[in-house]
Design a protein that fits this description.
Order of helices and strands: EEEHEEEE
Number of domains: 1
Distance between the termini: 44 Å
CATH class: Alpha Beta
Number of strands: 7
CATH superfamily: Hotdog Thioesterase
Shape: globular
Structural class: mainly beta
CATH topology: Thiol Ester Dehydrase, Chain A
Strand order of the largest sheet: 1-2-3-5-6-7-4
Largest sheet: 7 strands, antiparallel
Helix content: 10-25%
Radius of gyration: 15 Å
CATH architecture: Roll
Amino acid sequence: MRKLPEHGSCFVCGSDNPHSIGLAWYVDENGTILSEFSLTEAQQGLPGHAHGGASAAILDEAMGAVVWLAGHRVAAVNLEINYRRPLPLGQQFKVEAHLAGQEGRKVFASGEIRLQDETIAVSGRGIYVAAPQLFEPVRFREKQ
């Protein structure tokens, strides 16, 4: 298993972002993206539990990373998130994502967040479409 490079100011995994959730991504020999993490009051929704948007962002980033790792420069066009169990703050969770296929321009991924006992708490599927124009350096320059 190897660690993937950090994403600078990313909301989910960026070390340059003081508000980042702080995940570190790893990839195994099968190309599965993995991370272990916990959430704090900064990600709270219901008292003592994570906001659903935090878990959706984590799954989107994990699924996007597995698609990027396969060589596709994409943007999410559809996310389906299924909440099965709440995520208690301060506990350790595992997230993993897998490449699920491709049809033309669409690339599919799936992911899961698991509780400590391996129960699936949140699952998701994503559709990503090639968007290399969003990642050109000129796109990120400030207008003068």
